Amino acid sequence: MPGGNSFNIVMATGTAEKLLMLGVLTQTGANLGMPVRIFVTGTALKYFKKDGFKEKPVMPAGFEDYMKNLVAGLDKLRTDNWHKMLETAMETGDVKIFGCSLMSSALGWKKEDLDPMIDSIVGATDFMIQSGGGQTVIL
Amino acid sequence: MTTYNIDSKGTACPGPITDLIRAYRKASNGDIIILQATDPGVIPDSKAWCGMTKNELVGTKENKGEYEVTIKVTAKK
Predict the structure, then answer these.
(1) Cβ contact, residue pair B14, A28, below 8 Å
(2) Is the pTM of this model over 0.80?
(3) In 3D, which of B74, B67, B58, B70 has the Cα closest to residue B3?
(4) Which domains, ranges and CATH numbers included, belong to chain B?
(5) Could you tell me if A98 and A125 are in contact, meaning their C-beta atoms sit under 8 angstroms apart?
(6) Measured between CB atoms, does B58 come within 8 Å of chain A?
(7) Best residue in A22, A27, A81 for a mutation probing chain B (most B CBs within 10 Å)
(8) CB-CB contact of A134 with A4 (8 Å)
(9) Which residues of chain A make contact with B13, given a CB cutoff of 8 A?
(10) Which of A70, A125, B31, B74 counts the highest number of beta carbons within 10 A?
(11) Is B21 on the interface with A (CB under 8 A)?
């Protein structure tokens, strides 16, 4: 199977803290020389529509005060936003991002409707074969 | 031998290690990378990175929330 030592991420939830963690984990995987394979599905796909990253991410319900403090703290740090981290990781590492065919079909979105960083729209089978053997995390 | 002084102060994970690796890509065996940061993860992350890549961790310092990691490049191929 390809991707035996890859680091794989199923990005399913489109909330602010998970998008940030997607950027951090992808950048870190690229730093370490690991192939990173990302499958974008669920509510996260919204932010991978063309220019979708420019939208303000949804805050997780029930954590309003916590997230307010977190965002204020992040604004004080020299930290790239999640999309910039993905861009940097793709420039320096072996990173591929795939859109979920089920969600894309349901929403009527085609490849050209998605962020150019999406490599292709694939089904779960293709993603699982590409990422076979590597560790997978779900966000 | 070249010494790379990398100022990552004010960045947060994974910023310091990203900056370290940018310098490492330019470096040659025998070069020194001095990484300064304020992110508390920089010391364990640098130690783990040196262990994985077989570069030499020369030393670490901490002073009032500022961290300094010195690495000798030994594993470039």
Answers:
(1) yes
(2) yes
(3) B70
(4) 3-72 (3.30.110.40)
(5) no
(6) no
(7) A27
(8) yes
(9) 24, 28
(10) B31
(11) yes
